[in-house]
Each structure stands twice: as structure tokens, then as C-alpha cells.
Design brief:
The protein is of the alpha/beta class and 506 residues long. 37% of the residues lie in helices and 21% in strands. It has 16 helices and 22 strands. The strands form five sheets. It has a six-stranded mixed β-sheet, with no helix packed on it. Strand 11 and strand 12 form a beta hairpin. The radius of gyration is 26 Å and the shape is globular.
């Protein structure tokens, strides 16, 4: 009796059967070898499986384990930004849970992202390496002796293939400096040096694991043509098929973010030249319909939460449909105003929201994952009606996104069609917002020429002893206890706005 192949085996057979594209043409007698690569990037502490069954390291673990069981050895690499922006347990353990999870998955190399590095002491990075069970890979940060501060490169055997691996973090550029961090061109030269050394040491192919977007990786390819494959990161790009770099014929791949996807690519390599002669690849969405989450990984995360973040699983409210960043900002502004006793709340999505709220059972971790990192710091400021209106209309004129607010009505003007707050110009209001948005308010008022003539803006704000995730939890829990659904709450807020957005002359 024939058994039906599993999803992974069917997927593997599909990859094998792909009409893989050709890059460099091999010589007739060229020694060829095949290599399968699984790649991730920008996981950002998304160790939990999401409420709607999409993303998270349990799915990545299940995907890799089943692929190895059914298809043999594969190379598994990550291009950095393992930490920040994600689950509460990631923050509570300072990222250690994520590195521990990746050790259990069996990654062969992990690069350092800017979120893993910036404002992070070296001692913590060394603890991350201990949890990972290997050195982080990074060739473009040098110590005072001029040598790489981290392991720059390594040689690993995957089946019959010797693979050279080189790591790069985000290079120095305007607004980003760190002692010993090289710029892009110097990073490219260092990459070329390491790649040549790996080839001389017996590498059949060289793979660069880079915390750079696809375009900088294409630039690096011109500086280091010895590299055949670039696993990129940082820009959260969903690259569904490998990009071929003109001139070098290197491949560049990237797999979105937040462990929502894993990249799967099959390479045929000319061992003599180190070039890829044929390839086929795609992204695999990490969902319950595509693969089963790994039970051991789910147990690891649950145990860590129980020990270090027990409130993560506290139920808040059921969510019928996915909430966008704008809708989260709208709820956040209302929660900030009502839960802190302020007169006005602001919550600009681009300044604080880092993930959507999926459909399903929302707990405190759901809210933390969406707004926890930036929303941890709140301020209350005393602003006049004129100052609030200047900021409010300035955002609209910039055209990038509309403000999200609570505590005042606004009417749309005929001239310009802008929403204009209905506030007393000279009255002072207590306004609560995320600290990052307060920085935007100060810049907006300073550039408009309507800043204060007495007390400087920076002296008019005080820290609020609360967090955005916390006030959202309290606000939404209260709404649930009143028998309201999340959609009903949003509909009420939207209706209040619609009533005041009628066209009127000012």
C-alpha cells in the first residue's frame, strides 16, 4: 500500500522539479554539487506562534526538522536582527530565549543585526553567543587591534559540500556610527578578503550572511565577486524569487520578517569556480496550513513565559478581524487619554506600532508585540490649542500619514480639505503620547516657527508611569467586561469622528 507523501516531501519534490534558472555556464567536465539552503532574517523576538497561526519560531523549527528528516542535510542561516520588537518574553530575557531557540533549531550561522548591536553592551552579545552555542558571525566590526571583534567567517560541511560562510552587520553610514564599524566599501573589501581565504581553505562555495538590504548586497557583490549567494536582511523585503546581480551573477535572497516566511533555495554549484550554475528557490509561509509547529519549541517558549513573563498570556479580548496599524493607533490614543486622565491622547502609528493585531484571542503579549517596544515610554505635555493645531495640521500637510488622536473633535475645512481641531487657541491642555511622538511634536513646532515663547518645549513634558501596552490592556479589558466587541469599540470611535468631519467653512 502506497503512503501519501508529507507536505514537506511534496514541497521538496517541487523544488527538485523546478525548471531552475541558469547563471554561470559550467564546463563540460565541471565537478558539480548540490546544496539546499534555508534562510531567515529579522525575526525580532517573534518566538511565539501568532494568534492566527502565522509566523513564529515554532513553525520555523518544525519546517527545518521535517525538511532534514525527509530530504537530508540542509544549510540553515539567519541574517540578523533576532531581537527587539517582538514577544514580551524576548524583552524579559534580553533576547536570550530567541538565541536558545535558534540553537535548538540548529542554525549554522547567525549574523548580527543593528537591533542586536546598537546600544547593546558587548557582554550581552557574548551571553547571546553562549545561548546560541556558537560565535556570532561578523567581519566588519574591528577591535582596537584592527582584527574582527567577532568570528568573521567559518567553514562548514553540508553533505558533500564545503560551504564558506561570512557575516556582515549593517555598515557605518550617515547617522550610524560605532567604534570599529566599517562603511559599506570597506565592508566589501573585508568580505572579499574573507571569501578568498575560505576558497583557499577548501570552500566549494561562499555564502555571505549580511544584515543589509538587497540593493546594498548587490553593491557588495561588485566588491566581492567571490561570493556566490547573499542572504540579506534589514529591509524586511519579501523576495519570492532570488535576485541575480548583473555582472557577478551572484544571487540575493531575503525572507520578509518576524518569522512569517522561511526561504528555501536549491543550488547547483561548480566546485572548481565556486559559482552557482543553476538554482531554484521560493519563500515558504510559516503557517499551520503549510507546516506543523514544533511541539518542543512551543513547550520551551511556554515554560520561559511562565518563569519570566507570566502576564503574557493574560486574556484581553477576542478580535474578529485583523487590525491595521491605523486602527491600533486609534485605540491607543483613546486608551492613553482615558486610562491616564489626560484631556487629549495622540498615538501616531509610524512612531509606535510595530505589528498588526491578528484575528483571534488577544492576550497581553499580543498588545506588547504590536506596541510594546516604543510604547514603553510615555510622556504628558502641557500644550496650547494653537500648538496642538499646528502639529495636527502639519502632519496632514506632510502627507505621509494621518494623525490618530482622542479628546477633541475636528472639522474638515473647504480650503485644503484638512481636519482642523476644535480647540481653544490659548487654553493649555494635558496631552499624553509616546515619547517618540513627542520628539516629532517638538520638531514640528520648531520648524513651523510657532514654538513657545516662554517655557522651552523639552521642559514641558513629564514621564508617565505607564506603558501603551498596559493602558491598552486595561482599556480593552474594560470594554470587554461591558459586553463590547473590539469592532464595536472601533465603530464607536469612528462614528464620533465621522460626525465632526463634515465639510464646513473656516
Amino acid at each position: 500500500m502506497k503512503t501519501k507523501p508529507s507536505f514537506f516531501l511534496r514541497l521538496w519534490l517541487l523544488v527538485v522539479a523546478l525548471p531552475i534558472a541558469a547563471t554561470a555556464r559550467p564546463e563540460p567536465d565541471a565537478p558539480l554539487a548540490q546544496l539546499v539552503v534555508v534562510h531567515t532574517n529579522d525575526i525580532h523576538d517573534h518566538v511565539r506562534a501568532r494568534e492566527d497561526g502565522a509566523g513564529g519560531l515554532p513553525y520555523v523549527a518544525g519546517f527545518v526538522a521535517q525538511l532534514r528528516r525527509e530530504c537530508g542535510d540542509v544549510l540553515v542561516v539567519d541574517a540578523g536582527d533576532l531581537t527587539e520588537k517582538g514577544d514580551l518574553i524576548g524583552a524579559r530575557t534580553q533576547g536570550l530565549i530567541t538565541y536558545e531557540a535558534m540553537r535548538r533549531i540548529g542554525y549554522h550561522a547567525v549574523a548580527i543585526g543593528n537591533h542586536d548591536l546598537d546600544r547593546v553592551p558587548l557582554e550581552r552579545l557574548r551571553r547571546h553567543e553562549e545561548a546560541l552555542g556558537q560565535r556570532l558571525l561578523c567581519a566588519n566590526i574591528l577591535g582596537t587591534d584592527g582584527q574582527p571583534l567577532f568570528e568573521p567567517a567559518r567553514l562548514v560541511r553540508i553533505g558533500e559540500v564545503q560551504v564558506g560562510l561570512v557575516g556582515l552587520t549593517l555598515a557605518a553610514r550617515d547617522g550610524r556610527t560605532r567604534e570599529g564599524l566599517l562603511d559599506l566599501r570597506a565592508s566589501g573589501r573585508r568580505l572579499a578578503q574573507e571569501a578568498r581565504a575560505l576558497r583557499a581553505a577548501g570552500a566549494d562555495v561562499v555564502v555571505a550572511v549580511c544584515h543589509e538590504g538587497t540593493k546594498p548586497c548587490a553593491e557588495l557583490s561588485q566588491l566581492a565577486p567571490e561570493v556566490a549567494l547573499f542572504v540579506s536582511a534589514h529591509t524586511h523585503e519579501i523576495v519570492r524569487a532570488p535576485i541575480v546581480v548583473p555582472g557577478t551573477e551572484a544571487l540575493v535572497v531575503q525572507a520578509g520578517s518576524y518569522a512569517r516566511w522561511a526561504g528555501l533555495i536549491k543550488l547547483e554549484i561548480d566546485r572548481r569556480t565556486g559559482r552557482i550554475v543553476r538554482y531554484g528557490g521560493s519563500l515558504v509561509e510559516m503557517t499551520g496550513t503549510a507546516c506543523a509547529p514544533d511541539p518542543a519549541m512551543m513547550e520551551l517558549v511556554a515554560a520561559a513565559e511562565c518563569a519570566a513573563a507570566p502576564e503574557a498570556g493574560d486574556f484581553v479580548i477576542e478580535n474578529e478581524t485583523l487590525l491595521t496599524a491605523s486602527e491600533i493607533g486609534r485605540l491607543g490614543a483613546e486608551a492613553l487619554r482615558t486610562q491616564t486622565g489626560a484631556e487629549i491622547g495622540f498615538c501616531l502609528p509610524s512612531q509606535v506600532v510595530r505589528d498588526v493585531l491578528p484575528s483571534g484571542r488577544l492576550d497581553y503579549n499580543s498588545l506588547y508585540r504590536a506596541v510594546g517596544l516604543i510604547g514603553a515610554n510615555l510622556v504628558a505635555a502641557e500644550l496650547t490649542g494653537t500648538e496642538i493645531a499646528t502639529y495636527f495640521t502639519g502632519l496632514q500637510r506632510a502627507g505621509k500619514e494621518k494623525p490618530e488622536w482622542s479628546g477633541f473633535s475636528a472639522r474638515r475645512t473647504k480650503r485644503g480639505g484638512l481636519l482642523q481641531p476644535e480647540l481653544e487657541p490659548t487654553r493649555t491642555y494635558r496631552v499624553v503620547m509616546p515619547k517618540r511622538e513627542w520628539g516629532l511634536v517638538q520638531r514640528q513646532l520648531s520648524s513651523s516657527g510657532r514654538g513657545p515663547t516662554t517655557t522651552p518645549l523639552k521642559e514641558r513634558a513629564q514621564r508617565v508611569d505607564a506603558s501603551l501596552a498596559g493602558v491598552l490592556r486595561d482599556y480593552l479589558s474594560a470594554q470587554r467586561e461591558q459586553g463590547k466587541t473590539l469592532r464595536e469599540v472601533l465603530a464607536t470611535l469612528e462614528a464620533a469622528r465621522s460626525e465632526t468631519a463634515a465639510l464646513t467653512a473656516h
